[in-house]
Specification:
Elements lengths: L7 H11 L3 H6 L7 E5 L8 H10 L3 E2 L6 E4 L9 H4 L3 E3 L5 H7 L6 E4 L6 H9 L5 E5 L3 H13 L5 E5 L2 H7 L4 E7 L13 H5 L2 H21 E11 L8 H10 L3 E9 L9 E8 L9 H4 L11 H17 L8 E5 L2 E5 L1 H6 L9 E4 L2 E7 L2 E4 L1 H6 L8 E4 L4 H7 L4 E2 L6 E7 L2 E9 L2 E4 L16
Parallel strand pairs: 5-6, 5-8, 6-7, 8-9, 17-19
Antiparallel strand pairs: 1-3, 1-4, 2-3, 7-14, 9-11, 10-11, 12-13, 13-15, 15-16, 18-21, 19-20, 20-21
Helix pairs in contact: 5-6, 8-10
Bound molecules: S-adenosylmethionine.
S-adenosylmethionine binds next to helix 6 and helix 10.
Length: 461
Protein backbone atom coordinates (compact mmCIF):
# COMPACT_ATOMS: atom_id res chain seq x y z
CA UNK A 1 0.00 0.00 0.00
CA UNK A 2 1.19 3.52 -0.81
CA UNK A 3 1.00 4.72 2.80
CA UNK A 4 3.66 2.25 3.91
CA UNK A 5 6.14 3.84 1.58
CA UNK A 6 5.49 7.45 2.60
CA UNK A 7 8.78 9.02 3.79
CA UNK A 8 8.97 9.54 7.55
CA UNK A 9 10.17 13.15 7.17
CA UNK A 10 7.18 13.85 4.94
CA UNK A 11 4.65 12.42 7.41
CA UNK A 12 6.38 14.34 10.19
CA UNK A 13 5.83 17.66 8.40
CA UNK A 14 2.21 16.67 7.72
CA UNK A 15 1.79 15.83 11.42
CA UNK A 16 3.06 19.28 12.39
CA UNK A 17 0.44 20.89 10.17
CA UNK A 18 -2.52 18.62 10.79
CA UNK A 19 -2.12 17.38 14.38
CA UNK A 20 -5.06 15.11 15.21
CA UNK A 21 -6.21 15.11 11.61
CA UNK A 22 -3.04 13.34 10.47
CA UNK A 23 -4.68 9.93 10.71
CA UNK A 24 -7.57 10.98 8.48
CA UNK A 25 -5.03 12.35 6.01
CA UNK A 26 -3.05 9.08 6.09
CA UNK A 27 -6.22 7.09 5.51
CA UNK A 28 -6.95 9.10 2.37
CA UNK A 29 -4.09 7.13 0.75
CA UNK A 30 -6.12 3.93 0.98
CA UNK A 31 -8.98 5.36 -1.05
CA UNK A 32 -8.89 5.63 -4.85
CA UNK A 33 -7.63 8.86 -6.39
CA UNK A 34 -10.22 11.35 -7.59
CA UNK A 35 -10.58 12.03 -11.28
CA UNK A 36 -12.22 14.91 -13.02
CA UNK A 37 -12.87 16.71 -16.22
CA UNK A 38 -13.67 20.31 -16.95
CA UNK A 39 -15.91 21.37 -19.82
CA UNK A 40 -14.48 23.81 -22.32
CA UNK A 41 -16.93 26.69 -22.34
CA UNK A 42 -15.56 27.85 -25.72
CA UNK A 43 -17.58 24.89 -27.03
CA UNK A 44 -20.65 25.46 -24.91
CA UNK A 45 -22.82 26.75 -27.76
CA UNK A 46 -22.44 23.95 -30.33
CA UNK A 47 -21.71 21.56 -27.47
CA UNK A 48 -24.65 22.13 -25.19
CA UNK A 49 -26.30 18.84 -26.10
CA UNK A 50 -22.99 17.02 -26.08
CA UNK A 51 -22.30 18.35 -22.57
CA UNK A 52 -25.63 17.00 -21.38
CA UNK A 53 -24.91 13.68 -23.04
CA UNK A 54 -21.44 13.48 -21.50
CA UNK A 55 -22.80 14.24 -18.02
CA UNK A 56 -25.27 11.37 -18.36
CA UNK A 57 -22.94 8.98 -20.21
CA UNK A 58 -20.04 9.26 -17.74
CA UNK A 59 -22.33 9.71 -14.67
CA UNK A 60 -20.56 12.99 -13.86
CA UNK A 61 -21.06 14.77 -10.55
CA UNK A 62 -20.21 18.46 -9.95
CA UNK A 63 -16.98 19.73 -8.42
CA UNK A 64 -18.16 22.24 -5.77
CA UNK A 65 -15.49 24.90 -6.45
CA UNK A 66 -15.63 24.90 -10.25
CA UNK A 67 -18.91 25.39 -12.15
CA UNK A 68 -17.57 23.68 -15.30
CA UNK A 69 -15.81 20.88 -13.39
CA UNK A 70 -17.09 17.35 -12.77
CA UNK A 71 -15.93 14.13 -11.13
CA UNK A 72 -15.98 10.81 -12.92
CA UNK A 73 -15.37 7.34 -11.51
CA UNK A 74 -13.93 4.14 -12.90
CA UNK A 75 -14.74 2.52 -15.29
CA UNK A 76 -15.62 5.74 -17.19
CA UNK A 77 -12.83 6.71 -19.62
CA UNK A 78 -13.75 10.16 -20.96
CA UNK A 79 -10.19 10.63 -22.25
CA UNK A 80 -10.92 7.97 -24.88
CA UNK A 81 -14.18 9.42 -26.12
CA UNK A 82 -14.47 11.39 -29.41
CA UNK A 83 -15.73 14.39 -27.38
CA UNK A 84 -12.23 14.54 -25.90
CA UNK A 85 -10.67 14.63 -29.38
CA UNK A 86 -13.18 17.39 -30.20
CA UNK A 87 -11.97 19.47 -27.23
CA UNK A 88 -15.29 19.43 -25.38
CA UNK A 89 -13.44 18.92 -22.09
CA UNK A 90 -10.04 18.67 -20.49
CA UNK A 91 -9.19 15.87 -18.07
CA UNK A 92 -8.06 17.66 -14.93
CA UNK A 93 -7.54 16.73 -11.32
CA UNK A 94 -10.42 18.43 -9.44
CA UNK A 95 -8.35 20.31 -6.80
CA UNK A 96 -6.31 21.86 -9.61
CA UNK A 97 -9.50 23.51 -10.90
CA UNK A 98 -9.46 25.84 -7.88
CA UNK A 99 -6.52 27.91 -9.17
CA UNK A 100 -8.03 29.48 -12.31
CA UNK A 101 -11.35 29.97 -10.49
CA UNK A 102 -9.48 32.01 -7.87
CA UNK A 103 -7.61 34.03 -10.50
CA UNK A 104 -10.94 34.71 -12.24
CA UNK A 105 -9.58 35.99 -15.57
CA UNK A 106 -12.09 38.14 -17.45
CA UNK A 107 -12.83 38.40 -21.18
CA UNK A 108 -10.62 41.08 -22.72
CA UNK A 109 -7.80 40.97 -20.16
CA UNK A 110 -4.10 40.37 -20.84
CA UNK A 111 -3.15 37.20 -18.98
CA UNK A 112 0.08 35.21 -18.55
CA UNK A 113 0.29 31.56 -17.56
CA UNK A 114 3.94 31.34 -16.61
CA UNK A 115 4.39 27.58 -16.06
CA UNK A 116 1.69 26.22 -18.29
CA UNK A 117 2.32 22.68 -19.61
CA UNK A 118 0.48 20.47 -20.18
CA UNK A 119 -2.27 23.07 -20.14
CA UNK A 120 -4.81 22.42 -17.38
CA UNK A 121 -4.78 25.99 -16.08
CA UNK A 122 -4.27 27.55 -19.52
CA UNK A 123 -7.31 25.83 -21.01
CA UNK A 124 -9.33 26.78 -17.93
CA UNK A 125 -8.20 30.43 -18.18
CA UNK A 126 -9.06 30.52 -21.91
CA UNK A 127 -12.49 29.10 -21.17
CA UNK A 128 -13.15 31.74 -18.48
CA UNK A 129 -11.93 34.51 -20.84
CA UNK A 130 -14.51 33.29 -23.39
CA UNK A 131 -11.85 33.55 -26.07
CA UNK A 132 -11.53 37.34 -25.71
CA UNK A 133 -8.39 39.29 -24.84
CA UNK A 134 -4.88 37.92 -24.86
CA UNK A 135 -3.42 34.86 -23.19
CA UNK A 136 0.31 34.15 -23.22
CA UNK A 137 1.05 30.57 -22.14
CA UNK A 138 4.63 29.81 -21.35
CA UNK A 139 6.40 26.50 -20.74
CA UNK A 140 10.15 26.48 -20.20
CA UNK A 141 10.74 22.93 -21.50
CA UNK A 142 10.35 22.79 -25.30
CA UNK A 143 9.03 19.21 -25.37
CA UNK A 144 6.36 20.03 -22.81
CA UNK A 145 5.59 23.27 -24.69
CA UNK A 146 4.64 21.11 -27.69
CA UNK A 147 2.12 19.18 -25.61
CA UNK A 148 0.78 22.48 -24.31
CA UNK A 149 0.39 23.74 -27.89
CA UNK A 150 -1.48 20.54 -28.84
CA UNK A 151 -3.91 20.98 -25.98
CA UNK A 152 -4.45 24.66 -26.83
CA UNK A 153 -5.18 23.54 -30.39
CA UNK A 154 -7.49 20.68 -29.36
CA UNK A 155 -9.60 23.02 -27.25
CA UNK A 156 -9.97 25.48 -30.15
CA UNK A 157 -8.31 28.40 -28.39
CA UNK A 158 -7.63 31.24 -30.83
CA UNK A 159 -6.56 34.10 -28.55
CA UNK A 160 -3.49 32.41 -27.01
CA UNK A 161 0.19 32.34 -27.88
CA UNK A 162 2.34 29.50 -26.68
CA UNK A 163 5.91 30.53 -25.92
CA UNK A 164 8.81 28.60 -24.44
CA UNK A 165 11.21 30.64 -22.35
CA UNK A 166 12.79 30.93 -18.93
CA UNK A 167 10.83 33.33 -16.70
CA UNK A 168 13.81 35.75 -16.64
CA UNK A 169 13.78 36.04 -20.40
CA UNK A 170 10.06 36.83 -20.36
CA UNK A 171 10.32 39.44 -17.60
CA UNK A 172 12.94 41.31 -19.62
CA UNK A 173 10.55 41.44 -22.55
CA UNK A 174 7.23 41.95 -20.78
CA UNK A 175 7.65 44.33 -17.82
CA UNK A 176 4.32 45.20 -16.16
CA UNK A 177 2.46 43.76 -19.14
CA UNK A 178 -0.18 41.53 -17.56
CA UNK A 179 -3.46 42.17 -15.75
CA UNK A 180 -3.38 38.65 -14.35
CA UNK A 181 -0.70 36.03 -13.92
CA UNK A 182 -1.02 32.34 -13.10
CA UNK A 183 2.05 30.85 -11.51
CA UNK A 184 1.36 27.16 -11.05
CA UNK A 185 4.85 26.54 -9.81
CA UNK A 186 7.02 23.45 -10.33
CA UNK A 187 6.94 21.81 -6.90
CA UNK A 188 7.80 18.67 -4.96
CA UNK A 189 4.40 17.23 -5.93
CA UNK A 190 3.27 15.80 -2.59
CA UNK A 191 -0.30 15.97 -3.85
CA UNK A 192 0.65 13.55 -6.65
CA UNK A 193 1.61 10.63 -4.39
CA UNK A 194 -1.76 8.89 -4.61
CA UNK A 195 -2.09 9.35 -8.35
CA UNK A 196 1.55 8.58 -9.13
CA UNK A 197 3.33 6.57 -6.41
CA UNK A 198 6.60 6.90 -8.40
CA UNK A 199 6.62 10.57 -7.31
CA UNK A 200 7.27 9.36 -3.75
CA UNK A 201 10.76 8.15 -4.62
CA UNK A 202 11.69 11.62 -5.93
CA UNK A 203 10.72 13.29 -2.67
CA UNK A 204 13.32 14.34 -0.09
CA UNK A 205 13.74 17.31 2.26
CA UNK A 206 16.55 18.54 -0.02
CA UNK A 207 14.20 18.40 -3.02
CA UNK A 208 11.66 20.50 -1.13
CA UNK A 209 14.40 23.09 -0.42
CA UNK A 210 15.42 23.11 -4.08
CA UNK A 211 11.80 23.59 -5.20
CA UNK A 212 11.29 26.46 -2.73
CA UNK A 213 14.41 28.21 -4.02
CA UNK A 214 13.25 27.80 -7.63
CA UNK A 215 9.75 29.05 -6.77
CA UNK A 216 11.29 32.11 -5.16
CA UNK A 217 13.25 32.87 -8.33
CA UNK A 218 10.20 32.49 -10.57
CA UNK A 219 8.14 34.72 -8.29
CA UNK A 220 10.58 37.62 -8.82
CA UNK A 221 9.94 37.46 -12.55
CA UNK A 222 6.18 37.13 -12.08
CA UNK A 223 6.31 40.26 -9.91
CA UNK A 224 8.11 42.21 -12.65
CA UNK A 225 5.53 41.24 -15.25
CA UNK A 226 2.44 42.06 -13.21
CA UNK A 227 0.83 45.44 -13.89
CA UNK A 228 0.18 47.77 -10.95
CA UNK A 229 -3.33 46.89 -9.81
CA UNK A 230 -2.99 43.42 -11.32
CA UNK A 231 -3.45 40.11 -9.54
CA UNK A 232 -1.69 36.82 -9.52
CA UNK A 233 -2.37 33.30 -8.34
CA UNK A 234 0.48 31.24 -6.95
CA UNK A 235 -0.38 27.56 -6.70
CA UNK A 236 1.27 24.21 -6.08
CA UNK A 237 0.16 20.62 -5.78
CA UNK A 238 2.30 20.09 -2.70
CA UNK A 239 1.50 20.26 1.01
CA UNK A 240 4.61 21.44 2.89
CA UNK A 241 4.73 24.97 4.27
CA UNK A 242 8.12 25.81 2.77
CA UNK A 243 6.83 25.80 -0.78
CA UNK A 244 3.52 27.39 0.17
CA UNK A 245 2.85 29.70 3.15
CA UNK A 246 6.56 30.35 3.79
CA UNK A 247 7.21 31.24 0.15
CA UNK A 248 4.22 33.60 0.15
CA UNK A 249 5.29 35.20 3.46
CA UNK A 250 8.78 35.79 2.06
CA UNK A 251 7.30 37.33 -1.07
CA UNK A 252 5.07 39.66 0.96
CA UNK A 253 8.07 40.64 3.06
CA UNK A 254 10.12 41.52 0.00
CA UNK A 255 7.52 43.60 -1.85
CA UNK A 256 5.60 46.25 0.08
CA UNK A 257 3.18 46.73 -2.83
CA UNK A 258 1.99 43.11 -2.79
CA UNK A 259 -0.96 42.14 -0.63
CA UNK A 260 -2.34 38.71 0.06
CA UNK A 261 -6.02 38.63 -0.79
CA UNK A 262 -6.69 35.01 0.04
CA UNK A 263 -4.84 31.76 0.51
CA UNK A 264 -6.28 28.30 0.92
CA UNK A 265 -5.48 24.65 0.87
CA UNK A 266 -7.50 21.80 -0.45
CA UNK A 267 -6.70 18.68 1.60
CA UNK A 268 -7.54 15.22 0.26
CA UNK A 269 -9.17 14.13 3.52
CA UNK A 270 -11.37 17.23 3.72
CA UNK A 271 -12.49 17.74 0.13
CA UNK A 272 -12.76 15.34 -2.78
CA UNK A 273 -9.51 15.95 -4.68
CA UNK A 274 -5.79 15.19 -4.56
CA UNK A 275 -4.95 18.48 -2.82
CA UNK A 276 -3.70 21.92 -3.85
CA UNK A 277 -2.42 25.17 -2.38
CA UNK A 278 -3.64 28.43 -3.92
CA UNK A 279 -2.86 32.05 -3.02
CA UNK A 280 -4.32 35.17 -4.61
CA UNK A 281 -2.00 38.18 -4.53
CA UNK A 282 -2.57 41.74 -5.64
CA UNK A 283 -0.13 44.44 -6.66
CA UNK A 284 -1.00 47.92 -5.40
CA UNK A 285 -1.47 50.86 -7.72
CA UNK A 286 -3.28 51.47 -10.93
CA UNK A 287 -2.29 50.63 -14.41
CA UNK A 288 -1.75 53.60 -16.68
CA UNK A 289 -4.18 53.48 -19.58
CA UNK A 290 -2.69 52.67 -22.97
CA UNK A 291 -0.01 50.22 -24.01
CA UNK A 292 2.05 48.26 -21.52
CA UNK A 293 5.39 49.49 -20.15
CA UNK A 294 7.25 47.12 -22.45
CA UNK A 295 5.69 48.82 -25.42
CA UNK A 296 6.06 52.35 -24.05
CA UNK A 297 9.76 51.81 -23.52
CA UNK A 298 9.98 51.15 -27.25
CA UNK A 299 11.52 47.69 -26.96
CA UNK A 300 11.61 45.76 -30.18
CA UNK A 301 10.31 48.73 -32.12
CA UNK A 302 11.55 47.33 -35.42
CA UNK A 303 9.24 44.38 -35.31
CA UNK A 304 5.97 46.19 -35.91
CA UNK A 305 6.22 46.00 -39.71
CA UNK A 306 4.60 42.96 -41.22
CA UNK A 307 6.81 41.27 -43.81
CA UNK A 308 5.47 41.25 -47.37
CA UNK A 309 5.32 37.43 -47.45
CA UNK A 310 3.01 37.38 -44.43
CA UNK A 311 0.82 40.10 -45.94
CA UNK A 312 0.52 38.13 -49.18
CA UNK A 313 -0.28 34.95 -47.29
CA UNK A 314 -3.00 36.74 -45.35
CA UNK A 315 -4.50 38.05 -48.57
CA UNK A 316 -4.50 34.58 -50.06
CA UNK A 317 -6.03 33.06 -46.94
CA UNK A 318 -8.70 35.78 -46.67
CA UNK A 319 -9.76 35.07 -50.25
CA UNK A 320 -9.97 31.35 -49.50
CA UNK A 321 -11.88 31.96 -46.25
CA UNK A 322 -14.39 34.29 -47.94
CA UNK A 323 -15.48 31.38 -50.12
CA UNK A 324 -14.98 28.40 -47.80
CA UNK A 325 -15.83 29.90 -44.42
CA UNK A 326 -18.62 32.38 -45.12
CA UNK A 327 -19.40 32.86 -41.41
CA UNK A 328 -15.79 33.42 -40.30
CA UNK A 329 -14.13 36.83 -39.83
CA UNK A 330 -10.43 36.71 -40.57
CA UNK A 331 -8.71 38.80 -37.91
CA UNK A 332 -5.25 38.90 -36.42
CA UNK A 333 -1.74 39.80 -37.40
CA UNK A 334 -0.28 37.42 -39.99
CA UNK A 335 2.86 35.57 -38.95
CA UNK A 336 4.61 33.03 -41.19
CA UNK A 337 6.73 30.08 -40.05
CA UNK A 338 7.89 28.26 -43.17
CA UNK A 339 4.71 27.55 -45.10
CA UNK A 340 2.47 27.90 -42.04
CA UNK A 341 0.33 30.97 -41.56
CA UNK A 342 -0.65 31.98 -38.03
CA UNK A 343 -2.98 34.76 -36.94
CA UNK A 344 -1.56 36.43 -33.88
CA UNK A 345 -4.24 38.07 -31.70
CA UNK A 346 -4.38 41.79 -32.57
CA UNK A 347 -4.23 42.55 -28.85
CA UNK A 348 -0.62 41.38 -28.87
CA UNK A 349 0.38 44.05 -31.38
CA UNK A 350 -1.82 46.72 -29.81
CA UNK A 351 -0.97 46.15 -26.15
CA UNK A 352 2.55 44.69 -26.42
CA UNK A 353 4.74 44.73 -29.47
CA UNK A 354 5.45 42.35 -32.33
CA UNK A 355 9.18 42.96 -31.88
CA UNK A 356 8.96 41.33 -28.44
CA UNK A 357 8.69 38.00 -30.22
CA UNK A 358 12.05 38.41 -31.99
CA UNK A 359 14.38 35.65 -30.87
CA UNK A 360 11.75 34.04 -28.64
CA UNK A 361 10.73 30.39 -29.08
CA UNK A 362 7.08 30.56 -30.11
CA UNK A 363 5.62 27.10 -30.76
CA UNK A 364 2.27 28.69 -31.49
CA UNK A 365 2.01 32.33 -32.54
CA UNK A 366 -1.76 32.52 -32.14
CA UNK A 367 -4.11 30.49 -34.31
CA UNK A 368 -2.55 28.32 -37.00
CA UNK A 369 -4.92 28.86 -39.91
CA UNK A 370 -3.30 27.46 -43.01
CA UNK A 371 -0.44 25.81 -44.85
CA UNK A 372 0.46 27.62 -48.03
CA UNK A 373 1.28 25.12 -50.73
CA UNK A 374 2.55 26.78 -53.91
CA UNK A 375 -0.58 28.57 -55.01
CA UNK A 376 -3.13 26.86 -52.89
CA UNK A 377 -4.36 26.96 -49.33
CA UNK A 378 -4.64 23.92 -47.12
CA UNK A 379 -6.59 24.79 -43.98
CA UNK A 380 -4.84 23.91 -40.71
CA UNK A 381 -6.26 21.45 -38.21
CA UNK A 382 -6.15 24.16 -35.50
CA UNK A 383 -8.47 26.33 -37.59
CA UNK A 384 -11.05 23.54 -37.77
CA UNK A 385 -10.93 23.19 -33.98
CA UNK A 386 -11.51 26.92 -33.45
CA UNK A 387 -14.55 27.16 -35.75
CA UNK A 388 -18.23 26.99 -35.03
CA UNK A 389 -19.83 24.59 -37.54
CA UNK A 390 -22.11 27.25 -38.99
CA UNK A 391 -19.05 29.24 -40.10
CA UNK A 392 -18.03 26.61 -42.65
CA UNK A 393 -19.53 26.26 -46.13
CA UNK A 394 -19.64 22.45 -45.82
CA UNK A 395 -20.03 20.29 -42.72
CA UNK A 396 -20.16 16.52 -42.47
CA UNK A 397 -21.55 15.68 -39.04
CA UNK A 398 -21.16 12.22 -37.52
CA UNK A 399 -22.80 10.67 -34.47
CA UNK A 400 -20.50 9.86 -31.54
CA UNK A 401 -21.44 6.18 -31.55
CA UNK A 402 -21.37 5.66 -35.33
CA UNK A 403 -19.07 3.25 -37.16
CA UNK A 404 -18.34 6.03 -39.64
CA UNK A 405 -16.89 8.19 -36.89
CA UNK A 406 -14.72 5.33 -35.63
CA UNK A 407 -13.41 4.84 -39.18
CA UNK A 408 -12.74 8.54 -39.61
CA UNK A 409 -10.83 8.71 -36.32
CA UNK A 410 -8.66 5.82 -37.54
CA UNK A 411 -7.73 7.98 -40.53
CA UNK A 412 -9.92 6.30 -43.15
CA UNK A 413 -11.72 8.06 -45.99
CA UNK A 414 -15.52 8.14 -45.93
CA UNK A 415 -18.16 7.78 -48.58
CA UNK A 416 -20.16 10.98 -48.99
CA UNK A 417 -22.81 12.24 -51.46
CA UNK A 418 -21.30 12.89 -54.89
CA UNK A 419 -22.38 16.53 -54.85
CA UNK A 420 -20.20 17.30 -51.81
CA UNK A 421 -17.05 18.88 -53.14
CA UNK A 422 -14.11 20.64 -51.46
CA UNK A 423 -12.87 21.29 -47.94
CA UNK A 424 -15.44 20.01 -45.45
CA UNK A 425 -15.52 20.45 -41.70
CA UNK A 426 -16.00 17.04 -40.09
CA UNK A 427 -17.76 17.15 -36.74
CA UNK A 428 -19.08 14.87 -34.03
CA UNK A 429 -22.53 15.81 -32.71
CA UNK A 430 -21.89 19.37 -33.93
CA UNK A 431 -18.34 19.67 -32.52
CA UNK A 432 -15.56 20.18 -35.09
CA UNK A 433 -12.98 17.39 -35.28
CA UNK A 434 -10.92 18.33 -38.31
CA UNK A 435 -10.93 18.61 -42.10
CA UNK A 436 -11.88 16.29 -44.87
CA UNK A 437 -11.65 17.03 -48.59
CA UNK A 438 -14.55 15.78 -50.67
CA UNK A 439 -14.48 14.80 -54.29
CA UNK A 440 -16.28 12.14 -56.39
CA UNK A 441 -18.19 10.72 -53.43
CA UNK A 442 -15.10 10.29 -51.21
CA UNK A 443 -14.12 12.36 -48.19
CA UNK A 444 -10.35 12.25 -47.90
CA UNK A 445 -9.18 12.26 -44.30
CA UNK A 446 -6.99 15.19 -43.16
CA UNK A 447 -6.93 14.39 -39.46
CA UNK A 448 -3.27 14.83 -38.38
CA UNK A 449 -1.60 11.43 -38.13
CA UNK A 450 -0.66 11.94 -34.50
CA UNK A 451 -4.32 12.35 -33.52
CA UNK A 452 -5.60 9.19 -35.13
CA UNK A 453 -7.26 7.02 -32.57
CA UNK A 454 -4.72 4.23 -32.18
CA UNK A 455 -2.24 6.79 -30.87
CA UNK A 456 -3.11 7.96 -27.35
CA UNK A 457 -1.95 11.32 -26.03
CA UNK A 458 -1.77 12.58 -22.50
CA UNK A 459 -3.61 15.69 -21.51
CA UNK A 460 -4.01 15.13 -17.84
CA UNK A 461 -3.03 17.71 -15.28
N1 LIG B 1 0.02 24.65 -15.01
C1 LIG B 1 0.19 23.34 -15.58
C2 LIG B 1 -1.17 22.71 -15.79
O1 LIG B 1 -2.13 23.11 -15.12
O2 LIG B 1 -1.29 21.83 -16.65
C3 LIG B 1 1.08 22.48 -14.73
C4 LIG B 1 2.41 23.12 -14.47
S1 LIG B 1 3.54 22.15 -13.57
C5 LIG B 1 2.92 22.22 -11.98
C6 LIG B 1 4.91 23.21 -13.49
C7 LIG B 1 5.61 23.49 -14.81
O3 LIG B 1 6.72 24.33 -14.54
C8 LIG B 1 6.16 22.26 -15.50
O4 LIG B 1 5.60 22.15 -16.78
C9 LIG B 1 7.65 22.51 -15.58
O5 LIG B 1 8.23 22.08 -16.80
C10 LIG B 1 7.76 24.01 -15.44
N2 LIG B 1 9.06 24.47 -14.90
C11 LIG B 1 10.09 23.74 -14.42
N3 LIG B 1 11.10 24.53 -14.07
C12 LIG B 1 10.73 25.79 -14.31
C13 LIG B 1 11.36 27.06 -14.17
N4 LIG B 1 12.56 27.18 -13.66
N5 LIG B 1 10.67 28.14 -14.56
C14 LIG B 1 9.43 28.03 -15.06
N6 LIG B 1 8.79 26.87 -15.21
C15 LIG B 1 9.42 25.77 -14.85
Amino acid sequence: MTEQRLPAAYMESIGEMLGQETEAFRESYSTPRTQGLRFNMLKSVPGRRAIEQAIAHFALTPVPWCPSGYYYEEPARPGRHPYHTAGLYYIQEPSAMSAAELLSPQPGETVLDLAAAPGGKTTHIASLMQGQGLLVSNEIHPERAKILAENVERLGIAHALVVSAAPGELSRRFPEAFDKIMLDAPCSGEGMFRKDPAAISEWSPAHVEMCAARQWDILQDAYLMLKPGGSMVYSTCTFNRKENEETIARFLGAYADIELVEQKRLWPHRAKGEGHFVALLRKAGQDEPGPSRGKRSGRGKDGQNIPAAARDALKQFSGWAAAELPGYRTEGVPVMFGESLYLLPEAFRDRLHLGLLDGLKVPRAGLHVAHLKKNRIEPAHALAMALQPEQAARVHDLAADSLELAAWLRGESLQVPADLHGWTLVSVDGLPLGWGKASSGQLKNHLPKGLRIHKGYSSEA
